[in-house]
Design a protein that fits this description.
The complex is a heterodimer of chains A (551) and B (308). Chain A is an alpha+beta fold. Chain A folds into two domains: 270 residues, 3-Layer(aba) Sandwich (D-Maltodextrin-Binding Protein, domain 2), CATH 3.40.190; 216 residues, Roll (Dipeptide-binding Protein, domain 3), CATH 3.10.105. Helix content of chain A is 29%, strand content 20%. Chain A is built from 17 helices and 19 strands. In chain A, the strands form five sheets. In chain A, strands 11, 12, 13, 14, 15, 16 and 17 form a seven-stranded mixed beta sheet that branches. A four-stranded mixed beta sheet of chain A has the order 1-10-9-8, with helices on one face. Chain A has a four-stranded antiparallel beta sheet with strand order 4-5-7-6, with helices on one face. The two termini of chain A are 33 Å apart. The N terminus of chain A is likely disordered. With 308 residues, chain B is an all-alpha fold. Chain B is flat, with a radius of gyration of 24 Å. The termini of chain B are close together. The model of chain B has no long low-confidence stretch (mean pLDDT 87). Chain B folds into two domains: 63 residues, no CATH class; 211 residues, MetI-like (MetI-like fold, Orthogonal Bundle). Chain B has twelve helices and no strands. The longest helix of chain B has 36 residues. Classes of the chains: A alpha+beta (551), B mainly alpha (308). At the A-B interface, helix 1, helix 7, helix 14 and strand 16 of A face helix 2, helix 4, helix 6, helix 10 and helix 11 of B.
Chain lengths: 551, 308
C-alpha cells in the first residue's frame, strides 16, 4: 500500500504529501542517522507528522504514504525489513521455505495475537489474502496477489469482449494456491516460480486480518485491529490517530509507549510545528525550508539527508515512429547532464543515476547503464546521426502539480537541446492524473516523466514490474526477450545471490534500448524535535519506531 | 416581507437545480480518467475499476447519472468517495470548523473594520483617518500567505503568544490568529467602505435636518448616519461570509485547519467527484441564503426600502 503510493508520489511529487524532496538539500549522507545524544528513557510519547489517508485503514486498500505509515505501526506481517539495510527478517513467520520457489511452506511463530486478543494463525493470513484478491471487493492493492496460483479465477468473469467485467460476479472466492495445513502452517503455490516471494510478503498488503474484519470491513477500516507493535486508541484521518504500545506484542518492542500521527494539511504547517517543538518528527521538510539549506540552520543536527528507495526516469515513447530508434534514446540519455541538473535544480539533494535500481536495495550495483548515463555531448551527436537525426520539436511531459517538476523538466530539455541541437520543449500536464491518462492510453508523443518507489526492498521490484514484456507499469511497451528470460531464471534461482546476479545481468540489458532513461535517485530530508533522541530513518523514509526514544 | 421572503426561497429551487447540474457536468468533465493515477504508476486492476464503475454508475449517460445522483441527494444521501467513506461524514467534519473560522474572521473584521471606519469617517482628514487609509492600503497590498507566515512565525513560533497550528477539534482560542489573518483583507475593505459611506452620508440633507431638530450628536451619528451607511458594508460582509464558508485553502494550510477549502482541493486532485459536488452545492445554498438575508437586512437598516 504505502509502496504503491510511493510510486504515485514519486511521480506526482505532490506538494502536500511529498515523500520525495523537490528542491534542494545538501550533502548526501546515506547512513541511518541517529541523534548524538545519549540513549533516552523508556516510555514517553511522540508525535509524528502525517497527512490525511486517502482510504480507510485496510492494509490491502491503502496505497499511499499517509495511510501506509499508520498501517505499518498497526500491523506486522510475515517478515519485516531491517531499518538499516532493508534486508528482510522473519517477524510473524518462523520460516518461509521452498525447494522449487513455487510451493512455499510458511510456518508461523506461536503466541502472536491481534490487539483484540484473538490469535494470529494461518487462517488470519489465508482469509485476508483471499479477501484482498477477490475482484468484487475492489481492493486497490489486489494485484499484489497476482503471483499466487488461482488469482485470475477470483477476478470476476470477462463478460464483454471490450474488457469490461461485471463487478458483482466471481463465483470462485478463494485462490487455489492457498492452503491452510494446520493452525501455524500454510502453503502458498505460485503460478510461476519467484525467488523474491519471502521479501515480497513483508509488504503491508500481505498483513493478517482478525476475524472481526470480515464481519464489517467498513467499520474495521475506521478503527483497525492489527497485530503490530502499536494498537489504535482513537482518531480519524482528519485530525490524526492516537496509538499506544501493545503490551502483548511478540516482536521487538518499541521504547516509546504512545504514538500520535497528527494530520497536517500542508508540509509548511507541519514544519512550523516542528520548529515550535509541538511535533517530534517529519519525514520530509517542505521545499520552502530546503531552499538554501534553511532547514539545516533551523534544526542544527536534528536533521538527516538520506537516500530512499526512489528512482526518477524519463520514458521514451518507443511506440511513436519518431522515437523508435534505440540510437535516438541513447543520444538523448547522453545529452542529459545529470550532475549539473542535480546540483542546480536539487542543490545536490539527489544522486545522478547510473542504472535502473535504487542504491538502497540488496543487489544494487552501480554503473548498469554504462557509458550512456554519463554526459557526453560529442558522443550524443554521434548517436543522433546514427539514428538519422530528429526533425521537429522534442517534448518532455511532466505533471505540473509537483513542486520543482517544472524546473527539472526545463533543465532536462535545455540540456538535450544544447547537446543535440534539437528543439526541446517541456510540456506541462495539469496534474499526475492527467499525465497518467495519456500514458495509460499510449498517447504520448514525446518523452515523459516517470518514477518508481519500491514496494518492497528487492532489485526485482525495480525491474520486473517496469521492464518485463507486458508488465503492469511498462509504460512504453518495451520488450526485450532476453531480459524476460533472465528475470525468469532469476525467479527460479536457488539462492538470493544467484537470483541477484541474474537480475543484475538483466538490468544491464536495459542499456541496449535505453527506452527508459535513468535520471537520479532520490534523497529525503527529515527533521525531528529537541525532545526525541535515537532517531533513525528506515530505507522507506519512515521513522524507525522501534529505536526512537524520548529524552 | 413574508411573501417576498417566500418568493425568494422558491426561486432558490431552480437556481439550486441548475447549479448542481452545471457542477456535476463540470466535475465529470475534468480531464483525466479517475482511475488513471489512483493506483500509482500502474493501472488499477480491471476488477477494481469494474466495481467502482458500477458503484458510481459511470457507464450510464451523464444525464441519467445526474438524475440518479439527484434522487439520492433528495433522500439526503450525498454519496460516497471511491474508498467508501460517506461524503456526508467528511462534510460534517469539515463544515463546523470552517463555520467557526468564518465566524471568528467575520467578528474580527466587523468589529475592528466598522470601528476604524466609523472613527475615520467622522474625522475625515485627521490623523486617525490617515492612519486607517495607509494601514489598510498596506494590508490590501500584502498577499494573505505573507501575513499568515509572518504572524505565525512572529506570534506563534518566536514569542509563543498564540498556538502555532490549530489543534484537533479547532477550539475558538486557537482560531483567533487564523481568523485575524483570514479577516485582515476584508477588514481593510470594510474599514474603507464604512469610512467613505459615512463621510458621504454625514453631509446629507437628512443629517442636517436631524442636527437642526436639536437631536444629540450621539443619536444623529448612531441612528441616522451609521445605520444608513451600513448598506454597502452589509452587502460586502454578506458576500464575504459566503466566500469564507467556501473555505480558505491558504489560511487552512498555514494553520493546519481541517476545513472545507482543503477538502475541496484534495477532492479535486483525487477526482472525488461526489465530494466536490456535495461541498459546492452546499456552498451555492449558503450564498443564496446569505443574499436573501442581506436583502432583508436592507429594509431593516433603511426605512426607505420596502419589500412587497
Amino acid at each position: 500500500m504505502r509502496g504503491l503510493s510511493r510510486a504515485a508520489r514519486a511521480v506526482a511529487g505532490a506538494a502536500t504529501i511529498a515523500l520525495v524532496a523537490t528542491a534542494c538539500g545538501g550533502g548526501s549522507g546515506d547512513s541511518g542517522g541517529s541523534s548524538p545524544s545519549a540513549a533516552g528513557k523508556t516510555g514517553g510519547a511522540i508525535t509524528y507528522g502525517s497527512c490525511k489517508p486517502q482510504n480507510n485503514l485496510i492494509p490491502a486498500n491503502s496505497n499511499e504514504v499517509c495511510g501506509g505509515r499508520v498501517i505499518d505501526a498497526l500491523f506486522t506481517g510475515l517478515v519485516d525489513y531491517n531499518s538499516d539495510d532493508a534486508s528482510p527478517q522473519n517477524a510473524v513467520a518462523e520460516s518461509i521455505e521452498s525447494t522449487d520457489n513455487k510451493l512455499w511452506t510458511i510456518k508461523l511463530k506461536t503466541g502472536w495475537t491481534f490487539h483484540d486478543g484473538t490469535p494470529v494463525d494461518a487462517a488470519s493470513f489465508v482469509d485476508a489474502w483471499n479477501y484482498s484478491a477477490y475482484g468484487p471487493n475492489a481492493m486497490q492493492n489486489s494485484y499484489f496477489f497476482g503471483p499466487i496460483d488461482g488469482f485470475t479465477d477470483v477476478q470476476g468473469e470477462d463478460k464483454n469482449k471490450d474488457e469490461k467485467i461485471e463487478a458483482s460476479e466471481a463465483p470462485i472466492k478463494e485462490m487455489k494456491g492457498l492452503k491452510v495445513v494446520d493452525d501455524s502452517t500454510f502453503e502458498v503455490t505460485l503460478s510461476t516460480p519467484s525467488s523474491v516471494f519471502p521479501v515480497m510478503v513483508g509488504y503491508t498488503a500481505f498483513s493478517p486480518l482478525p476475524k472481526s474484519f470480515f464481519d464489517d470491513p467498513k467499520a474495521f477500516g475506521d478503527k483497525p485491529v492489527g497485530n503490530g507493535a502499536f494498537k489504535l486508541d482513537s482518531g480519524d484521518g482528519d485530525t490524526g490517530y492516537t496509538l499506544s504500545a501493545y503490551k502483548d506484542y511478540k516482536g521487538a518492542k518499541p521504547k516509546i509507549d504512545k504514538l500520535t500521527f497528527k494530520t497536517y494539511q500542508t508540509p509548511e504547517a507541519e514544519y512550523a510545528d516542528l520548529l515550535a517543538d509541538n511535533l517530534d518528527f517529519i519525514d520530509q521538510v517542505p521545499p520552502s525550508a530546503l531552499a538554501g539549506d534553511q532547514y539545516k540552520q533551523d534544526l542544527g543536527d536534528r536533521q538527516i539527508d538520506k537516500a530512499v528507495g526512489v528512482i526518477q526516469t524519463a520514458t521514451v515513447p518507443i511506440y511513436d515512429s519518431k522515437y523508435k530508434s534505440p540510437d535516438l534514446a541513447k543520444a538523448i540519455s547522453l545529452a542529459i547532464n545529470r550532475e549539473q541538473i542535480v546540483k542546480q535544480i536539487y542543490n545536490n539533494g539527489r544522486q545522478p543515476a547510473t542504472g535502473w535500481v535504487s542504491p538502497v536495495v540488496n543487489g544494487y550495483k552501480a554503473g548498469a547503464c554504462g557509458e550512456f548515463c554519463t554526459f557526453d555531448a560529442a558522443k550524443a551527436k554521434e548517436f543522433l546521426q546514427k539514428a538519422g537525426g530528429f526533425t521537429g520539436t522534442m517534448t518532455y511531459g511532466y505533471n505540473a502539480d509537483g513542486p520543482g517538476n517544472k524546473e527539472a523538466a526545463e533543465a532536462i530539455c535545455g540540456s538535450i537541446s544544447n547537446a543535440l541541437g534539437v528543439k526541446c520543449q517541456a510540456k506541462a500536464y495539469v496534474d499526475f492524473n492527467t499525465l497518467r491518462t495519456d500514458v495509460d492510453e499510449r498517447k504520448m508523443t514525446g518523452l515523459f516523466r516517470t518514477g518508481w518507489v519500491m514496494d518492497y526492498p528487492s532489485i526485482e521490484n525495480f525491474l520486473v514490474p517496469l521492464y518485463s514484456t507486458g508488465a503492469s507499469s511498462n509504460d512504453n511497451d518495451q520488450s526485450i526477450p532476453q531480459f524476460d528470460a533472465l528475470v525468469k531464471e532469476a525467479a527460479a534461482a536457488d539462492t538470493t545471490e544467484a537470483a541477484n546476479a541474474k537480475y543484475e545481468e538483466a538490468e544491464k540489458l536495459l542499456a541496449t534500448t535505453m527506452a527508459v532513461i535513468p535520471l537520479w535517485y532520490s534523497n529525503q530530508q527529515s527533521g525531528w524535535s529537541s525532545k526525541v533522541s535515537n532517531v533513525k530513518v528506515n530505507p522507506f523514509g519512515n521513522l524507525d519506531l522501534e529505536s526512537v526514544t524520548v529524552k | 416581507m413574508g411573501r417576498y421572503a417566500l418568493r425568494r426561497l422558491l426561486q432558490m429551487i431552480p437556481v439550486l437545480l441548475g447549479s448542481t447540474f452545471l457542477i456535476y457536468v463540470m466535475v465529470w468533465a475534468l480531464p483525466g480518467d479517475p482511475f488513471a493515477g489512483r493506483c500509482g504508476q500502474r493501472p488499477c486492476t480491471d476488477a477494481y475499476i469494474a466495481a467502482q464503475t458500477a458503484k458510481f454508475n459511470l457507464d450510464d449517460p451523464l444525464i441519467v447519472r445526474y438524475f440518479k445522483y439527484l434522487g439520492n441527494l433528495l433522500q439526503g444521501d450525498l454519496g460516497q468517495t471511491f474508498a467508501g467513506q460517506n461524503v456526508s461524514d467528511l462534510v460534517a467534519r469539515a463544515y463546523p470548523t470552517t463555520l467557526k473560522l468564518a465566524l471568528v474572521a467575520l467578528t474580527i473584521e466587523a468589529v475592528v473594520g466598522l470601528g476604524a471606519g466609523v472613527l475615520a469617517g467622522l474625522r475625515r482628514g485627521g490623523y486617525f483617518d490617515n492612519f486607517v487609509l495607509v494601514s489598510t492600503l498596506f494590508v490590501i497590498s500584502l498577499p494573505v500567505f505573507v501575513i499568515g507566515f509572518m504572524l505565525q512565525y512572529g506570534l506563534g513560533i518566536r514569542w509563543g503568544v498564540f498556538p502555532v497550528t490549530v489543534s484537533a477539534g479547532a477550539p475558538f482560542a486557537d482560531l483567533i490568529l487564523p481568523g485575524l489573518v483570514l479577516g485582515s483583507l476584508s477588514l481593510a475593505y470594510v474599514a474603507r467602505l464604512m469610512r467613505s459611506s459615512l463621510a458621504e452620508n454625514i453631509r446629507a440633507d437628512y443629517i442636517r435636518t436631524a442636527i437642526a431638530k436639536g437631536l444629540p450628536r450621539r443619536r444623529v451619528v448612531g441612528v441616522h448616519a451609521v445605520r444608513n451607511s451600513l448598506i454597502p458594508v452589509i452587502t460586502f460582509i454578506g458576500a464575504d461570509f459566503g466566500t469564507l464558508m467556501g473555505g480558505a485553502i491558504i489560511t487552512e494550510g498555514i494553520f493546519n485547519i481541517n476545513g472545507v477549502g482543503g477538502l475541496v482541493y484534495r477532492s479535486i486532485r483525487l477526482r472525488e467527484g461526489a465530494t466536490v459536488i456535495a461541498v459546492v452545492t452546499l456552498l451555492v445554498l449558503v450564498f443564496l441564503l446569505m443574499n436573501l438575508i442581506v436583502d432583508l437586512l436592507y429594509a431593516v437598516l433603511d426605512p426607505r426600502i420596502r419589500y412587497e
